[in-house]
Write a structure and sequence with these properties.
376 residues, mainly beta, four-stranded mixed sheet, 17 strands, 13% helix, rod-shaped
Length: 376
């Protein structure tokens, strides 16, 4: 059920969309939420009277969980982090599998039960779990306001158990070897290999601060916790896996400076000038064409219009032809520098649209030109 919950949360996160920017560099985060520990199904090293080990499930109450993380954003999609976690929870019950054993769990300690007062009650104590994990995470939409992510982690789980309970059944004549109250105490800790799966969703509140909703599923190798019983009842070491599902809300702060804003590209005109009666690009003209091409390609221009012009020296027909050659010379140079032909339009006006109004037959340098109009 809990795995389905995590899978559902991940699926919902993947469907989300939104625009921010992943910042390569260090970040820190804290998370706080709730966790649902699975019962630890533990097997004892000591044997019961029937020659079999005790197989008991140690169940915990749901409780809060907290995490602190230090990470590094490697690329837009990939990041790594070191995570410390804390989970706690009172012992809710300790009960065993139905069997021929007369001892199938633990009750409230130090209570003499009778036929008139047969209730078992819960044992006392809690489990405190500390984890240290190395996580690798993959951001599905790193440049969006809403960013789903998934990941895995490996590390260690240190669990401290403090449990005190009374064996659920005391049978036979009461003797020194079989007292009326027979308690079992676990006051031990162990460290085991741990691994976890992670799924979540991030909301970029600002350039540096984000809010994370994260689900984790933790498991690992067996924990070994020693028990001390009363009289002849000595189960010894219990071995079992700690498993847990948690959901947290966290704040993540990027220490890396935010990326510079993307340059704003607006409509712009460039002017290429030509010597008298020529359409070959001079070095100065080539530099202007290069600047125009860079601007158009950087901003992904949707339309680039090149128009050729002349001064009034010469006939109208001759100047129309010269204006065409000047326009095509500039257009060919733009294409050679990466401007797409689909966005390019070429026109020529000859002497009909001078930059500087003159009479006929005037050699005006400012009129010998091609204009490049770039639009986005």
């Amino acid at each position: 059920m809990r795995l389905k919950l995590l899978a559902g949360a991940a699926a919902a996160a993947i469907c989300a969309a939104g625009a921010a920017s992943a910042q390569v560099g260090w970040y820190g985060a804290v998370d706080l939420g709730y966790h649902w520990p699975d019962g630890i199904e533990a097997t004892s090293a000591g044997l019961a009277a029937n020659g079999n080990p005790y197989v008991w499930e140690f169940s915990q109450d749901e409780d809060w969980a907290g995490f602190a993380r230090l990470g590094y954003q490697l690329t837009d999609h990939w990041r790594v982090e070191l995570e410390g976690g804390y989970r706690t929870g009172d012992i809710a019950s300790v009960h065993g599998l139905p069997s021929t054993q007369s001892i199938v769990g633990l009750c409230t300690p130090n209570v003499t039960r009778t036929t008139a007062a047969p209730n078992c009650g819960s044992p006392d104590g809690d489990l405190k779990t500390y984890t240290l994990m190395a996580n690798v995470l993959f951001d599905l939409a790193p440049n969006s306001v809403i960013n789903p992510f998934v990941g895995v982690g490996v590390g260690v789980n240190y669990t401290k158990a403090e449990v005190l309970g009374q064996f659920s059944t005391v049978t036979g004549a009461l003797t020194a070897a079989n007292p009326s109250i027979q308690n079992l105490r676990i006051d031990d800790s162990d460290t085991a290999f741990a691994y976890q799966g992670i799924a979540g969703i991030e909301w970029a509140a600002t350039d540096r601060l984000s809010v994370d909703l994260t689900g984790r599923y933790l498991s690992g190798s067996d924990l070994d916790l020693n028990s001390v019983g009363s009289a002849a009842l000595q189960p010894g070491v219990f071995s079992g896996k700690y498993k847990d599902t948690s959901v947290t809300v966290g704040l993540r702060y990027s220490f890396a400076p935010p990326p510079p804003p993307a340059p704003a590209y607006e409509a712009k005109q460039f002017i290429v000038y030509f010597p008298f009666d020529q359409y070959v690009l001079t070095p100065e003209a080539q530099a202007v064409v290069q600047e125009a091409a860079n601007y158009a390609t950087a901003g992904n221009a949707t339309r680039v219009v090149v128009v050729g012009h002349t001064d009034t020296s010469g006939s109208t027909a001759y100047n129309a032809r010269l204006g065409e050659r000047r326009a095509k010379a500039v257009a060919d140079a733009l294409v050679g520098l990466g401007v797409g032909q689909s966005a390019l339009a070429v026109d020529w006006k000859g002497e009909s649209m001078p930059a500087v109004a003159t009479g006929d037959g005037v050699k005006e340098p400012l009129n010998r030109r091609s204009t490049i109009d770039i639009n986005f």
